[in-house]
Amino acid sequence: MSKITRGVSLYSFQEEMFLGQMNVEDCVAFATSIGANAIELLPEQNMPSFPNITDAQIGEWHEMLARHGAHFSAYDMFLDTKLRKDREMSDEEQVESVHRDLILCNRLGIKNMRIVIFVRPDILEKCVPMAEKLDVHMGVEVHAPWYLDHAWILRTIEVADRLNTKHLGILPDMGIFMKHYPPVMRARFERQGARPEVTQFIVDQHEQKVMAEYTIYEVAVKMQGNKAEVAMAETLRHAPFANPKRIGDFAPYFHHIQAKFYEMNEDCTDPALAYDDVIPELVKAGWVGTLSSEYEGNRWVQDVSAVDSREQVRRQHVMFERLIAEAEAKYGTAAVSA
Questions:
Q1: How does residue 337 score in pLDDT terms, banded at 50, 70 and 90?
Q2: I need a labelling partner for 188 at 20 to 30 A (CA). Which of 70, 163, 210, 285 fits?
């Protein structure tokens, strides 16, 4: 049996939910229909009365999940440090806010909580006792432009190691493995007025992994790029290609992956993100956890066509099944030692 579970973040269906074309149960029903039974929840988006959630409401959620053979896999928290206009949250208020989310996460029966990237390691250190008490793993999202070996991420890992805790670590976002520039993003910038020869230059620069600031300078200054061209060049700041071979070294620190993607080809391959490199490394490392689809391509096509998040997510899971099966046939399913 595979050690990797397939799941979906409800964020993947944001377009259809915003337009009233799908509700939460529709999303869960679709996810389980493609074998993605692990559901990643965004309480602030998916639970209208957040943070005031009653036991009855939690019971209704679990009844709904049970109807479809689904279960929760992760809880996405946010930290509103600028909630007030006159000042930012104090450290004590930040800890209190994280505690609030840990408690709700536990009440929902969820073991993994995604920590938004900017939460300071010293704040999380103060939250470890509560996380241990509630048995919730706090995973700091490794989101572009950060990457696995970034000093900010390593600070959290250093805290986890020093405390010898299994309840603090990371949670990778697959956007850090952008091997190729997404065609769907290039197409939108061209519709906004970017010249094909300039967008090709930007794509070529990304393919060669030239530092983003150099490309931005070339486009904005030397090429006198228009607004769309400069905007496209600036996206390279958030388009890193982290080394897939390093993910196995970090496997003990995470149990959940936000499997971001922008588009899937009709043949169920990803034209941009290096899943074909990363998934074999996860299997080789014996990683145990959930690959949770996070579709963010809607914003790149909604100006010209209806968004079909379901078809995009379906294609990604066809790819997951293939890549996991191929890697397990090659490496087996031995688990990472604790």
A1: very low
A2: 210
